[in-house]
């Protein structure tokens, strides 16, 4: 069940922690965008967050996202690994696709963008820990892939995204992603989730993706 007052209170807490982490790192809290990850939660939860001033949301499944978005005033990031056959729907509903990690997907996004007449912002997802089960371009191939995507999509390639290995200190992985973004002159570094966003902000995150700390535990796997 959706509890609007709990969501509003959680948002307040998360925003305060983001601001404190930014100041501790000598950064302006306004540099950091909070992506509220609403996967598995109903549209009512999204509306409750919007009523509490939240406008940027993240979903990792396109089909589920399409049941809740677009919503007037909301900005949607697709943050989960994207199947090529879902690219057209993602291009239709997303303001940003944050999981670009292979040339075939780039082809599908480009075709869909031509057809739909809109191209979302794009982030290259880097498999920063080179984990076999994770989506994202391998670190050894990241530089070449980022250059190719830059050449293809120009300024629509806004930055990089990563999910570090669950069982390691995330800080070195966050720093590595930030350094890659620096090398390529990319502004957006989407890194940090409920459990590690303060470390991500210290390492230079511009976007943090937070679900559980705002909407509560998820009942189903997503
Ligand atoms: C689910 C998800 C999140 C949010 O995770 P929480 O631990 O609930 O904050 C962030 N990023 C991605 C890619 C996700 O799939």
Describe, in plain words, how this protein is organized in 3D.
- This protein has 222 residues and is an alpha/beta fold.
- The protein has a single domain, classed as Alpha-Beta Barrel (TIM Barrel).
- Helices cover 43% and strands 18% of the residues.
- The chain has nine helices and nine strands.
- It has helices at 4-24, 43-51, 62-68, 87-93, 103-116, 139-153, 171-183, 197-202, 212-215; strands at 33-37, 56-59, 75-78, 96-100, 121-127, 137-138, 157-162, 188-190, 207-210.
- Strands 1, 2, 3, 4, 5, 6, 7, 8 and 9 form a nine-stranded parallel β-sheet that branches.
- Helix 7 links the parallel strand 7 (157-162) and strand 8 (188-190).
- Helix 1 crosses helix 2 (43-51).
- The structure holds pyridoxal-5'-phosphate (PLP).
- Pyridoxal-5'-phosphate (PLP) binds next to strand 9 and helix 9.
Overall CATH architecture: Alpha-Beta Barrel
Q: Oligomeric status of the shown chains?
A: single chain
Number of DSSP helical runs:
9
Bound molecules: pyridoxal-5'-phosphate
Low-pLDDT windows of residues: none
Q: Can you identify the CATH class? A: Alpha Beta
Radius of gyration: 17 Å
What is the molecular shape? globular
Beta content comes to 15-25%
